[in-house]
Specification:
Distance between the termini: 43 Å
Helix content: 40-55%
Number of helices: 23
Number of strands: 24
Radius of gyration: 34 Å
Structural class: alpha+beta
Shape: globular
Length: 837
């Protein structure tokens, strides 16, 4: 060990005496390790890191799929129950003696208007949980206390717990906030505590909860008539701590039996269509070590791709440094041979070579961790733009630091292997005779292999970047069917205005009239859910004029409520019949407008105007089609679904409030301060009217594709980095070959070879290795494309144009890297070179 320490000290002295080599090697490796460590930070934070709670290995969830967000009826066709209604939760909680309590958490992310003191209302993410939620998950309070079972009763005082980041950012970190009252949707709630720092809830999400409130407040916050209170509306995730020694299979069977028994008491499940499915409903208990995985499932493929690409960049960096060390080793072969001739053991020489490599890799690892921290921070800022804080820390954790250390040591050994092999063949007789030909040949072979590897990996990275970029281009430039220019989207939180159901018609008319009165506004559209705002849950319909058995083509039909100006505002044309107008009132015939996909699917080769249908929900009225609109996409990744629009004027209920979430405001031209004008107009209607979101429609479209854009941008950065590193390697090996061939080149020039012939001759050998690397890389590119095919949009996985583009780019970069040293070699003075030789 002491001898290896001396070898490290000797290696440090050698590196200090070669600053240019040291800087190039450390920078190259820092980039490679920084990229891979940054990718691993994200990978570990989202896929490997456990929940920051007490003994997370004891947590188990009731279900095995993180589906979202609420669903009336059976959550899954295969009988797997993963979402539960409030009534189901309360009954299952009593039927689960195998658990130390069964807790519930809202599956959806929801924002509400929150007001504290005289301050204006803020839109915060409020999360409904059971009273035993914090005790079950294992999180303590940093201030005050957490919720308890006693808080989750109808007679309990309304209380809430703040998230630590929300306490810091929204309430200034003021300790006196505990015990004070806030208004959530105009309902008074007392803050009783602040959650521990670093706890962002039971899942990784870009919108961690700001406030937790007990389930008992659902009726007060969302209203007595809200659909979420229906016994057949499933919207809760359940979890608990399994008691030691409990058989999980037995627990699953007991809970499944209790579930089926409870379903038999709910009217929805007793209909002739639903009751036969009760017998196959069951529960699967799965570990909850890492929390609910809904966002993780969405990002898993992208994270795996990111980790793979970063590993390839690290390999290119290692190959590049190995080439640098081979050149350095070849230059020192005379010294090594002389040391062997003087009796130095080869084992000691190998130890010094590996010590130098490990030292370089450790320096590169230290710099790489700093680069990884900066890169991870930037990626998290892009990946979590909507949250005040990210649940994934950018600061490297202990596992990440261990990963960086092991990566550094491994890479040091890896790229030291080639020069170590070269030193094994160094013969003392060559040093004594001044002969270096065999050394040159031995060093060139591994250099060529490394060059081929770099070319193949670079082609793979560039091709993946081209595929991701072209797919993103297709996604962002597809025909959406709606207009986005000069249009702004705002999400209203009208529940905070506390309007009764009977007042809502006038309330929304005031909002529309006031927004329409803004200078330059040409249209105001209102809808339950607008374009690119998520998939609307489907419903089933029955054709009144053509009674038939319910079939698949009559289900998965989408619906939304709109005002009469909505379709015109978003630029969707009526193809047949008419749009809604002022004659469509609560007292007139219930009407609908359907899109072209609806008409084609349900009324093929027929005129849909005048046709009637009803939803399968027993409360649905018979609806008559009065118009057919053009199709527009509600989801960028899927085909246009069958869709029908209900006129808002006919769908206000005297007892159940209807909250319109999305408003689209169309301007004649780009306004100077659209946000200020819209917010001031809404404040004039009602100061308690909260705006949760306000952006241009173009911004909303771009935000929908944020994951794809992030992956494409990172793939492009990695590809450019790999090609740059490979180009540096090409430059180095071409320079080395040119120096070794100085005598030959001088003779060729003396015999009359032209400068162009010399350049071509020097470049030909290296370009041949690049060509072999490209040939090896093509099957790898096709394999990667096949693996990515599910993520590509309107693009074949064997995209020829993209492959040709990637190959052309790599060849151009290779020529540029080789041209300078080849030109320098062709400019040598023959007599001067021969005298030196």
């Amino acid at each position: 060990m002491r001898q290896f320490f001396y070898d490290l000290r000797y290696a440090l002295r050698k590196l200090r005496n070669a600053p240019r080599f040291t800087l190039a090697a450390v920078t190259t490796l820092a980039l490679g390790i920084g990229v891979s460590t940054g990718a691993f930070t994200l990978f570990h934070g989202m896929l490997l890191q456990s929940l920051p709670v007490a003994e997370p290995q004891q947590l188990f969830r009731i279900g095995d799929a993180s589906i979202c967000c609420d669903y009336i009826g059976y959550p899954e066709d295969d009988g797997d129950f993963d979402l539960f209604s409030l009534d189901l939760y309360r009954n299952l909680k009593e039927a689960a003696p195998e658990f130390h309590g069964l807790a519930a958490s809202q599956a959806d992310d929801q924002h509400f208007a929150v007001r504290h003191g005289p301050d204006a209302a803020k839109t915060l993410y409020v999360h409904f949980v059971s009273g035993n939620y914090f005790n079950t998950i294992g999180v303590s309070a940093s201030l005050g206390r957490m919720l308890s079972d006693a808080d989750d009763t109808s007679s309990a005082a309304p209380v809430a717990v703040l998230g630590y980041e929300a306490w810091q950012n929204e309430f200034g970190g003021n300790p006196s906030v505990v015990g004070s009252t806030i208004l959530i949707q105009a309902y008074p709630v007392v803050i009783v505590g602040v959650a521990r720092r670093g706890f962002f809830g039971d899942r990784v999400t870009d919108k961690p909860p700001d406030v937790w409130i007990p389930l008992a407040l659902v009726r007060h916050i969302r209203g007595e008539g809200d659909n979420i209170l229906r016994a057949d509306n499933n919207w809760l995730w359940l979890f608990g701590r399994l008691r030691p020694g409990v058989d999980m299979t037995l627990a699953q069977n007991n809970l499944s039996a209790a579930l089926r028994q409870q379903l038999l008491t709910i009217p929805f499940y007793l209909s002739p269509r639903q009751k036969p499915k009760i017998s196959k409903q069951h529960i699967v208990i799965t570990p909850m070590l890492k929390g609910f995985q809904i966002m993780v499932d969405d990002y898993r493929g992208g994270l795996q791709l990111l980790m793979l690409l970063s590993s390839l960049v690290l390999l290119v960096a290692c190959a590049n440094i190995a080439n640098l060390m081979l050149v350095r080793g070849a230059a020192h072969q005379h010294e090594i041979a002389l040391r062997v001739a003087l009796g130095a053991p080869r084992r000691r020489i190998l130890s010094q070579i590996f010590a130098e490599g490990i030292l370089v890799s450790c320096f590169g690892g230290i710099a790489g961790v700093a680069l990884a921290w900066i890169g991870t921070f930037m990626i998290l800022h892009l990946g979590f733009p909507k949250g005040t804080a990210s649940p994934i820390p950018a600061t490297p954790s202990l596992p990440v630091l261990i990963f960086a250390l092991l990566t550094s040591i491994f890479t040091g050994i890896l790229f030291s292997a080639a020069p170590a092999r070269l030193s094994m063949f160094s013969q003392p007789v060559h040093a004594l005779r001044g002969y270096s030909g065999s050394t040159v040949r031995l060093s060139l072979l591994p250099q060529k292999i490394l060059l081929i590897l770099q070319a193949a990996l670079s082609l793979l990275l560039v091709s993946v970047a081209v595929l991701a970029t072209r797919s993103l281009h297709n996604l962002s430039h597809q025909e959406t069917g709606f207009a986005s220019e000069n249009r702004y989207v705002l999400h209203l939180d009208a529940t905070g205005a506390d309007k009764s159901a009977s007042d809502q018609r006038e309330f929304y008319n005031k909002i529309q009239a006031r927004l329409a009165g803004i200078g330059g506004v040409t249209g105001v559209g209102m809808t339950s859910l607008g374009p690119y705002e998520g998939q609307i849950l489907g419903t089933c319909v029955i054709l009144v004029d053509e009674p038939k058995k319910l079939s698949d083509h009559l289900c998965e039909v989408n619906r939304t409520q709109v005002n009469a100006q909505y379709l015109d505002t978003i630029g969707v044309h009526i193809l047949a019949g008419r749009n809604f107008n002022e004659r469509d009132t609560a007292d007139s015939l219930p009407v609908v407008v359907v899109n072209k996909a609806f008409a084609t699917r349900l009324f093929p080769n027929q005129d849909p105007i005048g046709k009637r249908f009803a939803e399968t929900d027993e409360r649905s009225a018979v609806l008559q089609i009065v118009g057919v609109s053009d199709d527009y996409k509600i989801n960028p990744y899927e085909p246009v679904p069958a869709f029908f629009y209900l006129p808002l004027a006919q769908n206000f209920n005297a007892t159940i409030p209807i909250y319109i979430q999305t408003v689209v405001v169309q301007f004649r031209r780009e306004p100077e301060d659209p946000e200020g004008m819209i917010r001031r107009a809404l404040a004039e209607v009602d100061p308690d009217l909260s705006v949760a979101y306000l952006h241009s429609m173009d911004y909303q479209i771009a935000g929908t594709l944020s994951e794809e854009r992030l992956i494409a941008d990172l793939a492009l950065i990695f590809a450019i980095l790999a090609v740059a590193l490979a180009s540096v390697g090409l430059y180095g090996i071409t320079s080395f070959i040119a120096i070794q061939r100085t005598n030959e080149i001088a003779i060729r020039i003396a015999l009359g070879s032209s400068r162009f012939a010399i350049i071509r001759n020097v470049m030909r050998g290296v370009m041949g290795q690049v060509g072999i690397g490209i040939l090896i890389g093509i099957p790898c590119v096709l394999t990667a494309g096949y693996w990515m095919k599910s993520a590509l949009f309107n693009l074949r996985w064997y995209d020829p144009a993209g492959l040709i583009l990637a190959i052309s780019f790599l060849i151009l970069c290779s020529i540029a890297a080789e041209l300078i040293p080849a030109y320098r070699a062709a400019s040598v003075e023959p007599m001067k070179a021969l005298r030196t030789e």
